[in-house]
Amino acid sequence: MLTLPAPAKINLFLHITGQRDNGYHELQTVFALLDYGDRLHFKPAGTLTLSCDQADVPRDDSNLVLRAAALLQQHTGCRRGAAIRLEKRLPMGGGVGGGSSDAATALLGLDALWDLNLPIPTLAQLGLELGADVPVFVHGHSAWAEGVGEHLTPVSLPDAHFLVIHPGIHVSTARIFGDRQLTRDTPISKLPASLEAVLTDSFHNDCEAVATRHFPVIGELLDWLRQYAGNARMTGTGACCFARLTGAQQGQQLLQQLPQHWTGFVARSRNTSPLHEALAKFRATKNSG
Ligand SMILES: C[C@](O)(CO)[C@H](O)COP(=O)(O)OP(=O)(O)OC[C@H]1O[C@@H](n2ccc(N)nc2=O)[C@H](O)[C@@H]1O
Ligand SMILES: Nc1ncnc2c1ncn2[C@@H]1O[C@H](COP(=O)(O)OP(=O)(O)OP(=O)(O)O)[C@@H](O)[C@H]1O
């Protein structure tokens, strides 16, 4: 049995700098990986199956975990199976990359379980076919990202705690990117010098205004967070918003005061993904045994 984490990400800012002919958006962002997320359990088996502890998670071929597994089989010709159990903790359509991270953990986990040993760039390329956010989880570093999110430069972020709040709604990424009022002309920025710099006003999330118009509760959530932390912001295309904290304790206090119907978690940013740390341990145990 192999158990691996699928960590969340937050976009510390998200600038939309253009749009490609195929409709996809050019963007600039910093992905901060977090030490909180889903978990996947893998058991060798004759066929591929997926179970999940939450009723609203799709279990059919549309689940990104099964799509990742099928893509890996197709790419390598491998016909081995696995019984995969998904422990879902991240909100869906929350902008914290849950489905994308599950897909990346499936790619790397099955690569290890099936002894495929594909290079990381190959797995990231396969991941990109599943979604723009998958490559950062495959590479496993907090990163400065450009292009549609696939040109990644690892960054070293200072240790920071974040409060991430989900206002209980599901935001469709395609709906936000498809909105005609989305600002698509933010000037190209240079890689900022520090985390503090990207949490200041000149950096922002271009999707915030559109998402707030579609879902006023996101505006209410930002106002609520800003009473306690000036740097509150939305992640991705929403619905989650986050604020940098003075420490874990402040986050626990704020969680106690959350309005009804909102849920949240406190997490630390991680420069190296917990997934890659867990895989390194798995490989070390395997090689020593
Ligand atoms: C907003 C971010 O979360 C920032 O990290 C990502 O750019 C979104 O990544 P994702 O959820 O993996 O998105 P995908 O599943 O690839 O795309 C969902 C839809 O969003 C739109 N989309 C996505 C990424 C992008 N750079 N431009 C887009 O226009 C496309 O209409 C696409 O059909
Ligand atoms: N394993 C999975 N976990 C979550 N959602 C999944 C999964 N597989 C497929 N999906 C589908 O993907 C949709 C978006 O899920 P996800 O949680 O990744 O959104 P998100 O957090 O907004 O992503 P991003 O931050 O990458 O835009 C869900 O509505 C769901 O139907």
From TrEMBL:
Annotated active site: K9, D133
Gene Ontology MF annotations: 4-(cytidine 5'-diphospho)-2-C-methyl-D-erythritol kinase activity; ATP binding
Keyword ATP-binding applies: yes
Catalyzed reactions: 4-CDP-2-C-methyl-D-erythritol + ATP = 4-CDP-2-C-methyl-D-erythritol 2-phosphate + ADP + H(+)
Residues of the GHMP kinase N-terminal domain: 63-140
Entries under Gene3D superfamilies matching the protein: 3.30.230.10, GHMP kinase, C-terminal domain
Domain of life: Bacteria
Function statement: Catalyzes the phosphorylation of the position 2 hydroxy group of 4-diphosphocytidyl-2C-methyl-D-erythritol.
Entry protein name: 4-diphosphocytidyl-2-C-methyl-D-erythritol kinase
Organism: Alcanivorax hongdengensis A-11-3
The organism's taxonomic lineage, starting at the top: Bacteria, Pseudomonadati, Pseudomonadota, Gammaproteobacteria, Oceanospirillales
Gene, per the UniProt record: ispE
